[in-house]
UniProtKB/TrEMBL annotation:
One of its GO terms (biological process) is D-xylose metabolic process. This is Xylose isomerase. SUPFAM superfamilies: Xylose isomerase-like (SSF51658). It comes from Potamilus streckersoni. GO terms for molecular function: metal ion binding; xylose isomerase activity. Keywords: Carbohydrate metabolism, Isomerase, Metal-binding, Xylose metabolism. Its EC number is 5.3.1.5. InterPro entries: Xyl_isomerase-like_sf, Xylose_isom_bac, Xylose_isomerase. Coiled coil: none annotated.
């Protein structure tokens, strides 16, 4: 997420008539759009239909819905305004009067649940401050959060939509400008802790299956004023407190850390998957936390699209995915809807290989472009991305079942299954053994890595 606008659209006046119709219990927010259907023979311009995502279709023993576990994020889709550093909001939603009122917050929530239901998406995600306004004191803020989450609970029950994860916004309020848990001021650390305490309680109340920490301001802008070690020690203490409180209140969701190398901080401590895994192991937290990987963050860290998903997965640390994409030709966090079938295939290959992403999911941490101003663009964006991942799932299942790449990799490492290779693998070989082996066998021969052959195999399945 890069544009976060807790209070936006200030130039629009609250006209009671205009918005009051949306306060009614039976108000419809998207009257022109019905439940999105699956029709495999739909034509190319029919972008309000699923052509590939058929929730009940079984792929490798599980339904598409179970493999993909799609989720809508509240912040971009119901709080995004299209404002950017150069221009005012462009995404004017007819129910949103731009104020900080509870009525407005409730309208947004009702609109969101209608949206989830029409799309057939079974999960949602939010930051505490997306769904309820921040007030002058923590007590007042928590009171409003309680009232809004009562409504959220009601809407969850009525629609069957569940909470994939909740998170605390520890980056937008000016108090967090120097960080939250890594802030040089213990008073701010305490505020962040109090906020997370409440958000964990809310997550439990709404039955969240996970809880995310993304530290946009946990990092530095200059090393000249920063005690790097103290800040990381404090961050670790914060994560320990959260894990302890989770257990104390009996919240059973998985705790997840979401890596990102930069933006808004110049350097974020949770740079990429391997940095976070090393941090967790260093502080003995690797049993308490897993990772939420967002590919747009991975590419910002200078890696390939699926790199962090694969790295987290092989170490048993992939908990969930913020399914989006950037524009590598731009180089910042554009949070676009994932529409690239090859990327989706590679992600789903890892998800299938690790036996699924549950209790995580594929959360669309994505925003429509500020030029995509129609209400139907919200649907088209999600439908396009869901179809992309349905195709990725089908492609990956064929690729895995045919086993060509798997066999190729197996063959490539086969020298480790016997003799000296087996001893290396078992950890029993010594440097003397290796010398003896070379003296006996002589020089090794070049073996092709066959990259282009592998790429051609992959293309066959796309
Ligand atoms: C920021 C980002 C966040 C996290 C949750 O780039 O991705 O929206 O997903 O705070
Ligand atoms: Co994200």
């Amino acid at each position: 997420m890069s544009s976060f606008a807790p209070e936006s659209g200030g130039q629009r006046a609250t006209s009671s008539d205009k918005y009051a119709k949306y306060d009614k219990q039976d108000a419809e927010f998207f009257p022109d759009i019905g439940k999105i259907a699956f029709r495999s023979n739909a034509g190319p311009t029919e972008t309000l239909v699923f052509k590939h995502y058929n929730p009940t279709e079984v792929v490798m023993g599980r339904s598409m819905e179970e493999w993909l576990r799609f989720s809508v994020c509240f912040w971009h889709t119901f709080r995004g305004t299209g404002a950017d550093p150069f221009g005012f909001p462009t995404l004017i939603r007819p129910w949103d009067d731009g104020t900080n009122s509870m009525e407005n917050a409730k309208r947004r929530l009702r609109a969101a649940f209608e949206f989830f239901s029409k799309l057939g998406i079974k999960y949602w995600t939010f930051h505490d401050r997306d769904i309820a306004p921040e007030r002058e004191t923590l007590e007042e803020t928590n009171k409003d959060l309680d009232e809004i989450t009562d409504l959220a609970l009601e809407l969850q029950k009525a629609t069957g939509v569940k909470l994939l994860w909740a998170t605390s916004n520890l980056f937008a309020n000016p108090r967090y400008m120097n960080g939250a848990a890594s802030n040089p001021d213990a008073h701010i650390f305490a505020y962040a802790g109090a906020q997370v305490k409440k958000c964990l309680e809310v997550a439990k109340k709404l039955g969240a299956e996970n809880f995310v920490f993304w530290g946009g301001r946990e990092g530095y802008h200059t090393l000249l004023n920063t005690d790097i070690l103290a800040e990381q020690n404090h961050l670790a203490s914060f994560f320990k407190m959260a894990a302890a409180y989770k257990k104390k209140i009996g919240f059973t969701g998985t705790l997840l850390i979401e890596p990102k190398p930069k933006e808004p901080a110049k350097h974020q401590y949770d740079y990429d998957a391997m940095t976070v895994i090393a941090f967790l192991k260093h502080y003995g937290l690797e049993k308490e936390y897993k990772l939420n990987i967002e590919p747009n963050h991975t590419t910002l860290a200078g890696h390939g699209y699926e790199h962090d998903i694969v790295m987290a997965s092989v170490f048993g640390m992939l908990g969930s995915i913020d399914s989006n994409t950037g524009s590598p030709d731009l180089g910042w966090d554009t949070d676009q809807f994932p529409m690239d079938i090859k990327n989706a295939t590679l992600v789903m290959k890892t998800v299938i290989e690790q036996g699924g992403i549950q209790p995580g999911g594929l959360n669309f941490d994505c925003k429509v472009r500020r030029e995509s101003t129609d209400l139907k663009d919200m649907y088209i964006a999600h439908i396009g991305a869901m179809d992309t991942f349905a195709r990725g799932l089908k492609n990956a299942s064929k690729l895995i079942q045919d086993g060509l790449l798997k066999n190729l990799v197996k063959e490539r490492y086969s020298s480790y299954t016997a003799g000296i290779g087996k001893k290396i693998e078992d950890g029993t070989a010594t440097l003397e053994d290796l010398e003896q082996y070379i003296l006996e066998k002589g020089n090794p021969h070049a073996v092709s890595g066959q990259q282009e052959h592998c790429e051609s195999i992959l293309n066959f399945y796309i």
